[in-house]
Design brief:
alpha/beta, three-stranded antiparallel β-sheet, 2 domains, single chain, Rossmann fold
Amino acid sequence: MEDNRNLTEDRPTFVTHLECSMTGERYEADRLHNLSAAGKPLLVRYDLDGVKGALTKAKLADRPMDLWRWRELLPVRRTENIVSLGEIATPLIELPTLASTHGATGSLIVKDEGRLPTGSFKARGLVMAVAMAKELGITHMAMPTNGNAGAALSAYASHCGIKTTIFCPADTPETNISEMALQGADVYRVNGLIDDCGKLVGAGKETVGWFDTSTLKEPYRIEGKKTMG
């Protein structure tokens, strides 16, 4: 039987506040944020002493091996706001033949993130961004993307009923466009580059009212990505 304890048990998060990555200015947790007043990314901060007391090696070893085993070091407070499509612990794989082919003098090891639900490491960041969007009451998310991030956002957002709008550069492969659309996103191919897509997302934040989920313009994608380590 599948062990879903990481998704169903109530556990504390030790988030204390958010902090501007340049100035150190503090921002209140549990509120909607994009960039800091200085226009820089916000970082989530934790009470690490509290984590040390609550999350022992023995407790961690007893938990299922998935992304949500690190709940104390993740920002989602309420269990009911966890979103998951099955984020397993991905393996490290040694590639001796490839190492030899390229003349590597040591081991060549890769982390197989393709086993995550949407086929790339982008799933880590977007599952956390969407879970926090759910927790903070966001109903519409938007982002510029070349493909993988948009696929992850579309999958997780549709899973919990959040509307998604995606803008892609003109050269985005049709396969990526179809993947996002099939998962419920409104997808627009832009006659321009990724920066042009980002400008459309930023403008729509003001006119349409969606939440800008662009890379480093919200605090929580990086919180999911850190679980790769």
